[in-house]
């Protein structure tokens, strides 16, 4: 199946990169797409990454001298 790139700026970038790397234009595009796919897959675990970040926050010890401008009720909600 053919892929046509109508943007001449993009075509020029692909051609320059292919010459610089000694690769075909197809190989350059394939490598770029593979890299973007792997980055997208790595970032696809957002709930897991968020949970890991929150776990790091939970490991920060409470400071007795910390100032908290809010008053909290027995349910952990600000008054």
Explain this structure:
By secondary structure, the protein is an all-alpha fold. The protein has a domain at 9-44. The protein has three helices and no strands. α1 packs across α2 (25-43).
Low-confidence stretches: none
Supply the number of helical segments.
3
Report the C-alpha radius of gyration, rounded: 25 Å
Q: How does the helix and strand content classify structurally?
A: mainly alpha
* Form type: rod-shaped
Helix content: 55-70%
Q: What proportion strand?
A: under 5%
Query: What would the average pLDDT be, to the nearest integer?
Result: 88
Largest sheet: none
Please report the distance between the alpha carbons of the first and last residues.
63 Å
Order of secondary-structure elements: HHH
Q: What is the fold's blueprint, element by element?
A:
Layout: H1 8-21, H2 25-43, H3 46-58
Helix pairs in contact: 1-2
Keywords:
single chain, 79 residues, 3 helices, 58% helix
Short structural description:
By secondary structure, the chain is mainly α. Helix content is 58%, strand content 0%.
């Amino acid at each position: 199946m053919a892929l046509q790139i109508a943007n001449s700026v993009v075509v020029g970038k692909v051609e320059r990169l292919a010459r610089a790397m000694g690769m075909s234009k197809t190989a350059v595009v394939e490598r770029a797409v593979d890299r973007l796919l792997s980055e997208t897959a790595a970032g696809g675990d957002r709930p897991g990454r968020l949970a890991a970040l929150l776990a790091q926050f939970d490991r920060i010890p409470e400071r007795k001298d910390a100032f908290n401008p809010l008053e909290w009720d027995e349910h952990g909600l600000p008054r």
